[in-house]
Specification:
This protein is an alpha+beta fold and 206 residues long. Helix content is 32%, strand content 22%. Helix 3 packs across helix 4, helix 3 runs parallel beside helix 5 and helix 5 packs parallel to helix 6. The longest helix has 15 residues.
Amino acid sequence: MTMDAVQDAPRLQSTGVPPSAGRASKRPHVTIRNLSKRFDKAIVYDNFDLDIPRGELISVFGPNGCGKSTLINMIAGLVPPDAGEILFDGMRLDEIKFGYVFQNYREALFPWLRAFDNIAYPLKMMKVEPAERKARTERLVARLGIKLDLNLYPYQMSGGQQQLVSIMRALVVEPEILFLDEPSAGVDVSLRKNMWKPVRECANPG
């Protein structure tokens, strides 16, 4: 794998959730083979291989411009690779349920919807009945113990509260994999602990 303008490639680190007994014997959740991507003449990834295990929080970190967001966006299907294959337990992305939390939380929520309806919106797109949408959203909020007035509109919430809503919206579909692109960027340090709680709860519900 080569990077344009920087020598340091993105690095991956498992954080937050200890591996369970026997996990090493399980096949990877995400399998990436021969992934390649270039922008004009800049080669970002060249025959890149990666295995991502199930049930762990995996961080991708490195200097600006090294391809962190590009990698996440290719796995999430937002940026098409030039070559290679990405599978989730042997299935394509359109065959699984996944969630995505964008870096720019101020533009991620629908400003005309209250927090509760923003969270439930993916269920509406899945054509889940209104009563079931309400019940599933309420169960998620109760499970995570989030103390937030869900009748507020995004403009009435702080940045950290908006990002919490974005995370809950991604979790409400009960995703098999959750993508987060610098979710704590621009969020006050005092709010980051509460912001990460639902992510850890999702990764390690026991």
